[in-house]
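Page header: ASSEMBLY MODEL / two components / 604 residues total.
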Amino acid sequence: MKNIIVVLAAVALFASCKKETVTPSEYDSSKKAALSIEFDNIVGAADLELNTGNYTNQSGETFKVSKLKYYVSNFKLTNINGTEYIVPQDSCYFLIDEEDESTHEPVLRIPEGEYKTLTFTLGVDSLRNTKDISQRTGVLDPTGTGADMYWSWNSGYIFFKMEGTSPASMMGDYAYHIGFFGGMSTPTINNIKTVSLDLTARGTPKIKSGKETNVHLMLDILKVFNGSTNFSIADHSMVMFEPFTSTVANNYATMIKHDHTEN
Amino acid sequence: MNKRYWLIIFFFLAGIVACKKEVIEAFEGFKKPAYFPEPAYHFETNPVTKEGFELGRKLFYDPILSANNTISCGSCHIQTSAFTQHGHKVSHGIFDQLGTRNSTPVMNLAWSNTFMWDGGITDLDLQPIAPITNHVEMGDAMANVLSKLQQHQQYPSLFKNAFGTENITTANFLKALSQFVLMCVSNNSKYDSVMRSQSSFTNEEAEGYAIFKQKCSACHTEPLFTDNSFRSNGLSLNAVGDVGRSNITLNENDRFKFKVPSLRNLEYTPPYMHDGRVFTLEGVLNHYETGINQLQNLDPLLQQNTRPGIAFTADEKTKLLLFLNTLNDKFFVTDRKLSEQ
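Prediction written out in full:
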């Protein structure tokens, strides 16, 4: 009996020792591992359902959504020890398209570690808006995947596009196409938004080789109408190329919350 | 003996002819005329090669770039009209639809970094996307154009020759078109030969040149005859309510401003102004003399006299027109190298 206790104690000691000694070297920052960022589009408390879901904004107007697309880019993560990791720009542009589920969870390669802050651009940075055509590939190809998100007559990307129908609109439909990167030769509106999320409250990602960590974000599109300034579809059913785009951009910049992390 | 003598002469002459031919056909690439400023185009990312230029030329004249294979770039940018659309106030595109603006000349674009009348496009490489996808111009989708080219009998190998790959990408397609457009340099007018000291103005042309320098050159700066700026020149708002540059910048201070057009090749490019509302050069001078509307943002240079506009005597106008005539570049509008082959 005594022997058994000794053995148990020894095992327990070993077990605890093992944990303690392993923790500091648990992360090898020279190795990169997968971190997926899930962009989960919701409407208030419900999941967004394209075309069928009927929703009500703060102005009491009902609306449906037929299209929701936006660019996210320039991801940066801050380790709990304070070091920052900037994801190389060339592998860092994603077009989230509600209609295409394969776009909802872009995967980044991040050095192993535990991270407290996630920062990214909602839109396409101004530099990339002015890059040589050979560097506009993939989702940024203005004639391919990005064709629907590019103004050919006013060189620049559309950062955010939301379209749908609403009885509140005179025409029966609404469309918000938000672009403007600040202008090439003359300053224009700049609707590029940087989002910085504290991950400590809802679970820090612990990134390690051999597994994929997932940071699950929820984007509440009701905020498009009232994130910082409330507006109605009746007053603004088409917002594309006008100063009011700034109001819409300021609104949607508030729509992103960190919901949880799956380690 | 005699026979051998003739044979030697024959081969000697044949040799000369062969040599001469080679020299003439050698591709010189893009060359900046000595008295022109440094080009604005980024040649470092798209050097002009013979293969790229020839491919670009073929694309420029190929209606395959339009939705129903009827309209090419060259349909609205006709070489004999200095690459504008002669006889059309505004561009006339696919399915007989009309645009809202006068098609601009494809000329000396290597020296510009804003394109279109409102400067909405900021890179020459991105320019072709606009007309190709505009539903009243060529009306096609770029992805469809690229797939038509990829399935074409000749294009994949032409792209391979120019860019090293048969895979036709957006970038290579646009760069080929740029290579052709960059080579559309107009620098062989009489004015140019005077600048090169190969010719001289007549007395009246010289007087016209002096008037030009005094009254026009602040905006129509030599040797490109545009300063590439955007200005309001007092044209009344047209029926389609085109406010120009402010459509792009959303800046009230840009309302009614349009890009200053070059004065080169005016003989070939009527009608004039962004919507082609003025048919003759006399009409243009009359506009500046008496037709200026006091619109918001009217250019300060047109407000220096008691009456808005530029004061001209009849004699000054005659001489000015004689000078403007020296800016017509017959070589440019007939250059075989720039024509459909």
